[in-house]
Structure formats: structure tokens, C-alpha cells
Amino acid sequence: KELLLKVKNIELLMGRKSHFSGRYEPRIIDIDIIYYENFVINHEPELVVPHPRMEQRRFVLEPLSQLAPDKKHPLKNKTSKQLLNECPDQHFVIRL
């Protein structure tokens, strides 16, 4: 939870509003904790690690598979590269 508090503080310092409306809306910054070593953490709703929807999001898996292609998901037992290859999200991800 200490890491989550630090992440939330960074978001606030960068101008993110602290309210939650229950729906997705534009925000200046959004920092998600995808993995934390090989820990599985379930403190819903504020912290779930690994991120519960990461395997559905190409914008998460593209950079992750470049940085750590052999990193295994602790629950699915698949590498980042395998998750990317199976990802249903077909949006383009552009590396800047």
C-alpha cells in the first residue's frame, strides 16, 4: 500500500484530480501498478496486482514485452510476449 500512496501522490503533484466518478474520464496522468515483483495483491477496489485487465490492453503489453518479454504473469503463467500475442486489443501502439 505504501507504493500505491506514493503513486497517488505523484499523480496529485502532476495535476490529477483526486475524485472518482466510477467511470473513465480524461485525466492528465494515470499511473497503474502492473506488476510488483511476483506478488499477487488483492485489496479491492484500490489495489489489485497484477493489474486485472492488463492482458486485454495492447498499450500495456507492447512496452512490457519490449522491456521484459520473458516476465511471467504470476497467475496466468504466461510470458509478456505470449500475452501480447493473445491480446484481443487490435489498436495500434506507437512508440514515441
Features:
96 residues, two-stranded antiparallel ribbon
Question: Any chance you could write out the topology, listing elements then pairs?
Answer:
Layout: H1 2-13, E1 41-43, E2 47-49, H2 58-67, H3 80-86
Antiparallel strand pairs: 1-2
What this model shows, in words?
- The protein contains 3 helices and 2 strands.
- With 96 residues, the chain is mainly α.
- Strands 1-2 form a two-stranded antiparallel ribbon.
- A hairpin with a 3-residue loop joins strand 1 and strand 2.
- The longest helix has 12 residues.
- The model has no long low-confidence stretch (mean pLDDT 91).
End-to-end C-alpha gap? 31 Å
Mean pLDDT: 91
User: Could you give a short account of the major beta sheet?
Assistant: 2 strands, antiparallel
How many beta-strand elements?
2
Largest beta sheet: strand ordering: 1-2
**Rg, please?**
14 Å
- Beta content comes to 5-15%
pLDDT < 50 stretches: none
- Structure annotation, total helices: 3
The assigned structural class equals mainly alpha
Q: Which geometry do the CA atoms define?
A: globular
Residues in helices, as a percent range: 25-40%
> SSE order in H/E notation?
HEEHH
